[in-house]
Amino acid sequence: DITTPEPISEAELVFEGALRPKSLDEFVGQAKVRGQLQLLLQAAGIQGRTADHILLAGPPGLGKTTLAMIVAHESGKPLRMSSGPAIQHAGDLAAVLSSLVPGEVLFIDEIHRMARSAEEMLYLAMEDFRIDIMVGKGAGATSVPLDLAPFTLVGATTRSGMLPNPLRDRFGFTAHLEFYADSELEQVLHRAARMLDFDIDREGLAEIAGRSRGTPRIANRLLRRVRDYVLVHGGDADLAAVKAALTLYDVDELGLDRLDRAVMDIMLTRFGGGPVGLNTLAVSVGEEAETIESVVEPFLVRIGLITRTPRGRVATPQAFAHFGVANPQGSFL
Length: 333
Ligand code: ADP
What we know:
By secondary structure, this protein is of the alpha/beta class. The protein has helices at residues 10-19, 31-47, 64-75, 90-98, 116-128, 165-168, 182-195, 202-210, 216-233, 239-248, 258-270, 278-285, 289-302, 317-323; strands at 54-57, 79-83, 105-109, 130-135, 142-147, 152-157, 173-176, 306-309, 312-315. The chain has 14 helices and nine strands.
């Protein structure tokens, strides 16, 4: 789907690489996190040590990878990229850790999906820049300590609640990234349009921003589709062109995608607005509960279509209104 917050193709990754801000100053929005990171990096710089380990938490597409790259860039150190799913055994992690150069920034995306055995190795590595390597097998196996170069770990997760406490506690700083305000997305888009040499007017940019689910990755992607549209159909890149292009791709005014709509449809029509439990919802739309909880739900909550209650998820009156479904609660008023 065009509004999926994860990258949808290799081509998109290349395109994203070109648009990534390289410094904290160029990074739009997340003012609080930016200020906190700035301080952390400056303090480390003054003391001539590696920066504390950083955990970046938040839904996909909000800039976690970009921030990891910026941390490396601003510290003038190389960046090593890895991911939780790629670390299936402690040995995978040992290979990465033992080859780091002093001060290197190690980025582990989706860190909550790393193997348990590797997690334990990571605790020691984060704390003491040391790991224990098992040598030999069976009764004769011994563990040999290995010193590591000091490094800064930048972990990213869509679900900080899924991290074991001992891991979470070893980060010096946790940044919770929030969805972007429309005005911030307009800045992201303005910058991207300039870099793409695409002449689009303010109203057009504002319209794209409003349909981008608070997510820079989606904003940039929609911008490209609008650019295609104008290229093919000619004319100005204005509000009318944006509306026509995004209608073609089924992106509605709220930026809801197919999965959002499926979730809302089930909640409103099958469960009369709820409360519905997370697992019931996930099974009903044929998605993993994790995706519903970390990607779909935060956005639906933020735009006021659902609320979370102790008994489950509940659709709001706005949701009934937006989808034109009669509200069973409303009929009692
Ligand atoms: P995540 O790792 O959280 O999934 P990324 O860092 O890969 O997200 O960001 C996705 C895309 O959005 C990148 O192309 C990046 O350039 C753009 N982007 C993200 N955050 C910002 C920002 N604050 N300012 C400008 N562009 C951003």
